[in-house]
Give the backbone structure.
Amino acid sequence: MDFGQIEAFSQVAQRHSFSRAAEALQLTQPSITARIQTLERELGEELFERGGRGVRLTDAGSAFLPYVERILQTLREGRDAVDEVRNVQLGSLRVGSALTVSTYVLPRILNIFCHRYPGVDVIVRTGRSEQVVAMLLADEVQVALVRSLVNPELETVDLYEDEIVLAVPPGHHFAAAGKVRVAEAAGEPIVLFDRGSSYYGLINNFFRQAGVIPNVAMELDSLEATKRMVEEGLGIALLPLVTIERELAAGTLVKVHLTDAEPMKRPISLIYRRNRKRPRSVQAFVDTLREIYAVKAPVA
């Protein structure tokens, strides 16, 4: 059994005619007939009934057809994969990203990716993690970076731990010691941000589990504004570490260790559709992330 026989069988089944199958494959009708006869001999069954009104599948032919279609689809995908390897510098990439990740993490990732694949057009769409997951399931984006979520339709690859830390201005009395108890921190004016975000719930739950009520002095809808308020001495805040790296380096904010609490962490993950063929540009992005975060590929 060879590809020529399989292709001939598929064309005759689609067109109900040996002559039309021959035209489609640019072969002679005797050649198509010979391929079908050889295939029938190998299978030990007639695959077509020949009649005055054309050709139709026998029961054996109908049973064989789905497997032939599967083989041909696999071959088409293989050809596409080869073309994509040849054209890895071309195409597009649609990335979904949680808001904080898109602002503080994604630029560095795309800097590496775009230098490697300058011909790939990148489109980024942002939202809360749940919104980004919906974009992925609706095929509006091909791959996404969000806080780790469980969904049976998605493959999840954890990349890094998003740590929440206590940040204070450099002149604050907590800054000198560099450490403080949760109850002491809760007594200071605290700035919270983005009530609708998962960070808000995570921080409130942190104080609740510690058995203290935070002294909330201000609520903002912007993480950047929250950082500015803390820098101006209007309060202290629990903030994602990745969002204050520049301020820590510049000395405009100071990280303070909470001595009687476990670090607040949650995984940030790469997600994409499970059991879905990935275009070469998407696979290149996945491979780039695995390299950046030293994540091993799953064993097949």
In short: DSSP finds 13 helices and twelve strands in the chain.
